[in-house]
Write the structure tokens for this entry.
Amino acid sequence: MRFQTDLIPARLIRRYKRFLADARLEDGREITAHCANPGSMMGLADEEMKIWLEPNDDPKKKLKFGWRLVDHENGHFTGVDTSVPNRALKAALEAREIDGLGDYDGIRPEVKYGENSRIDFLLEGGGRDTYVEVKSVTLCRRAGLAEFPDSVTKRGAKHLAELSAMVAEGHRAVMLYLLQRTDCEAMTLAGDIDPAYAQAFADAREAGVEVMCLGTKITPEGVWVGGRLKFNFR
């Protein structure tokens, strides 16, 4: 998935009110960008970090920049926009590039199910429908190991319960974690951050929900879904 507009580099001044970030462009101008990430962004919002912004000229948008990437300045990137994984995954699903999720006749995003929820992708055909919930993973506290979540997520626990309910009805359900970091080769749960989510995850696995972890290729040009990575169960 390529970004719609060429990204421009900047330095982060601060992130605040969850969805706002002030940044300094290379020409010295200071601007406010939209930050499409409701999480804590632990380790990704330090002052003077190099970031990449996507400009826009949409008259309907109050903010003319969107924060897309953190540049770790060592050849690695982290994607901070939580809407990107679904767009990148949709492209990969349509191209039948994901092992284990390719034998389907239809791909329907944002289908209503559960209790006032929408499944990220409903894959139809292939013998039985498959419900796929997608989470963006950006937290890294130990070298090479990503973790989820980076903050308490009651909504995430609710999604796991709803996936379990789909399995009980005879469907296939997949909890898919997309690592929006290029410096991690595996992931695990951050049970110390959200013990309730960790318990909901264990319950979902016992109920038959499948777990899939995929990596990404990230550059200032775009984000592409990579191959499977190891999930460390503990």
Q: What stands out?
A: The chain has two domains: 8-78, 84-231. Helices lie at 84-94, 154-168, 195-207. The radius of gyration is 18 Å.
